[in-house]
Structures are given as structure tokens and as C-alpha cells.
Amino acid sequence: MIEETNTENNLSVNSARPLARLAAARLPLLATALVLAFVTVNFSVPVLWSVLGFVFVIIVTAAAPARIRSERLSSAAAHSRILWPDTGMKAVVSSLPHPAFLLDQRGIMRFSNEAATAAFPQARPGDPLSMSIRTPRLRDALAAAQGMVTSRFEYRERSGAETVYVVTVQPVLHAAAAAPFILLLFEDVTERLATARMRADFVANASHELRTPLASLSGFIDTLQGPARSDPKAQDRFLAIMREQAERMRRLLDDLLSLSRLEMRVHQQPREHIDLAQIARRVVDGLRPLAEHLEVEVTLDVPAEPVFVLGDGDELHQVLENLAENGLKYGSAGKRLDVRLTQQRLDGETVVLASVRDWGPGIPSEHLPRLTERFYRVDVASSREKQGTGLGLAIVKHILTRHRGRLDIESELGAGATFTVRLPAAEAPADRITADEAPTPALAG
Ligand SMILES: Nc1ncnc2c1ncn2[C@@H]1O[C@H](COP(=O)(O)OP(=O)(O)OP(=O)(O)O)[C@@H](O)[C@H]1O
Ligand SMILES: [Mg+2]
């Protein structure tokens, strides 16, 4: 409290001008003038002396650092000593969409909005904010704000998943306050940074993925034109590799195109009636040769009756095919792949669950959240060797988003992985409903 009063005194004194001081001391000055006039008249003091004496008093009053303040000044300043923000300021800070704090000049937190209380529950009014937000940048920014300078810095909050904020520290002048408050605004840029990083990674990855087969093709063209010019056996071998590389580039371009097409249509939900049971059967049939080659036994558990969803048949085929192919390619060590289709009531709606479960090595948990990112692969070399582009699950995710569906991935190291597609169930199309058929799909579970 003492410190606050001193701050106020200094401010008042510093801001007083000579004329203001004279005005403040006008009564004592008037009394001095009267006394001097009385003495001059009654005690024959030379007028010059009296005038010089009065001028001296005026100079001293105007120039000396006056410690005496008028009662009125003191009470006005006492009014202006606002340490807690008023209702108006609080209302404005409360309405801000980002976490925001109001601090006093000493960095003590005086008010926080709801978003700030939720994001930083450890920050309490009356405590210095630096106790909860521990970064030297905050101290520098507060010092700058005390000098009426706005500054910004990046702050990473590491409780649980990392959140990145851009913090703006800004002095806020209040007409009635002796000193400005300091507003801290925390803008969450985690998602924006992740998107920017993904975009940059995507371009880098796409060009890298294309450059590798391209470099191999140009290498073989040189060899065919040079050392292998008259070696038909080598030519056959190299041409076969070149076909493989060209095929790889084609697959990559196809995947990139289908991703960009899906991105453009992400808000258009396809609305054809599709029997997912039939698609699951076709996918498993199509992958039989690969399963036999890898010596994996595939089990298929789908209801005999149609299981309808609203969607695009080719896209849903692509979803199940990629999941089953992944299970075969990456989980072949388990020698078993289970494809299952059920309908259930979940969260108040009827959903179709299509799961693909392999019994291979599984996926370490730290990779699970990133698997659907473009080009993300747990083991790049192994994926390339298996002709993977790393775009399959990104395409799956886009297709499911368009279908108002979702993908859940569960895995236990050493015990395989389960990829479950969840889609809203649809009623049978009108032209399929006969007197014998139920109007809604049968519910399991
Ligand atoms: N069942 C699985 N078991 C272990 N790892 C898996 C499994 N499914 C996917 N992965 C990992 O996830 C990565 C991404 O899969 P994704 O389908 O997106 O790409 P890909 O199979 O490598 O290429 P593409 O599908 O384009 O041919 C794979 O490279 C692999 O590392
Ligand atoms: Mg794949």
C-alpha cells in the first residue's frame, strides 16, 4: 500500500508545472504580499526591499519541488488510484474470444476472462502472473508495457498436448486510473502452425516422392544409351525396373489427384444407397491373391442381408481396400486378417462399423494420431518397399469426412492393429422395401 501511495505522489509532483505550483500556493502568496505591504507602510521598510523579497518568495515557490499538495489534488488523486479494473473494463475483457488477463503495473493479475481461467486454471487474481506463466519473455514484455510499449511473443504451454500461443502484451490507459493496466491476450495458434507445417511438409514430400523414381528412370535411360546399349539381357532387366518406377509415379499422381478432388468436394455428401456388406465381400475377394502370396488367412464376418449407408461406392471400396491392404502388407507377420461388419446403436444413432483387424507387429502409440497425415509412415523404408505412397490413410480420412463418418485406430504393440470405420446407417432404398423386408436395417448390439 505504501508503495502505491508513493507512486502516486511522484506522479502528482512530477506532473505539476511552475504555474500550477504558484496557483496551488496562491493563498500563502497573498498573505505574504499583505504582510510585506503592512511592514513597508508601518515600519518604513524600503519598497525595493519588499518587492525583492516578494519576488524571491515567488521564485522559490515556483521552482522548489513542492511537497505540499492541496487537499483537492490529494483527494482527486486518491479517487484515481484504481487498482482493480472497473466493470466496463471487465466486460470488454470478458467478451474477448481468446484467453485474456488484466494485470496492474506490477504484473499482478487483477482479472481474467473465462477462456483464460479455463486455459490457465493455476493463475489466480492477486498473484503475479509470472508465477503461472513461466517465461523470461513475459518479464521483458511487462517491462516494455510499463514503458507504454506493446510487444508480442510466442509461448508454448506444455501441460498435456503442447499448445502454442502468440501473446500480445499491451498497456491499457484508463482515464480514471493513476497508472495503465496491462492487457495480455493469448491467441492459440497451435492448429494454424500445424496446418502450415503440414502444407510445407506436403509439398516437400510430394516432390521428394516423385524425384526418387524420376532420378531412377533418368539413371536407367543413361545406362541403356551407354553401357547397356548392346546388352539385350540387361536392357530387359532395366526396362522392367523402369516400368515399376513409372508405375510408382502413376500411383502417386493418381493418389495426389484423388486427394485434391476429395478436398474440393469435402462438403458435398454423396447420397447413393450403398450396400457396404457387398463392398466388403468384393474387397476381400480382390485381395485374395495378395493374401495368398503373403500367406495370410482372411476371415470375413458380414451380415447376410444388405447393410446400407449413404455414399459413393467407389470411394467406400477404396476405404476398405486400403485398410485391408495395409493389414495384409504391414501385419502379414500375424498371418491373419479379420474383416467385420456390424450395425449398432451408438450415441443415439444407428451406425455401421466396418473393422479390419490384423495380428501383426502393431503400431507404436505415438504414431497413431499422425497416421492419417499425408505421406506419414511409421517406417518409410518398409512402406516404400511395399509400394506404399503414404497417402492411403489420408485418402481414407478425406473420404470418411465427406461421408460424415470417422476412423478409429487401436493398436497394441506386438498384438496387431484394428482400424474401425464408422458411418451413419441408412434405411433401405424405397425400391428395395417389400412386404417381407423390415423398413429399417436389423440392429445388432
Ligand atoms: N495395419 C497396420 N499395421 C502397421 N502399420 C500400419 C498399418 N496400417 C498402416 N500402417 C502404417 O501407416 C502408414 C500409412 O499407411 P497408408 O495406408 O497411409 O500408406 P501406405 O500404405 O504406406 O501407402 P498407400 O496406402 O498409399 O499404398 C504405413 O506406411 C504404415 O507404416
Ligand atoms: Mg496403405
UniProtKB/TrEMBL annotation:
EC number: 2.7.13.3
InterPro entries for the chain: BphY/WalK/GraS-like (IPR050351), HATPase_C_sf (IPR036890), HATPase_dom (IPR003594), His_kinase_dom (IPR005467), HisK_dim/P_dom (IPR003661), HisK_dim/P_sf (IPR036097), Sig_transdc_His_kin-like_C (IPR004358)
Residues covered by the Histidine kinase domain: 205-427
Location in the cell: Cell membrane
Pfam families: HATPase_c (PF02518), HisKA (PF00512)
Keywords: ATP-binding, Cell membrane, Kinase, Membrane, Nucleotide-binding, Phosphoprotein, Transferase, Transmembrane, Transmembrane helix, Two-component regulatory system
CDD domains with a match to the protein in the record: HATPase (cd00075), HisKA (cd00082)
Signal peptide extent: none
A Gene Ontology term for the protein's cellular component: plasma membrane
Example GO BP: cellular response to phosphate starvation
SMART domains in alphabetical order: HATPase_c, HisKA
Highest taxon in the source lineage: Bacteria
Catalytic activity: ATP + protein L-histidine = ADP + protein N-phospho-L-histidine
Enzyme class: transferase
One MF annotation (Gene Ontology) recorded for this entry: phosphoprotein phosphatase activity
PANTHER family in the cross-refs: PHOSPHATE REGULON SENSOR PROTEIN PHOR
Full protein name: histidine kinase
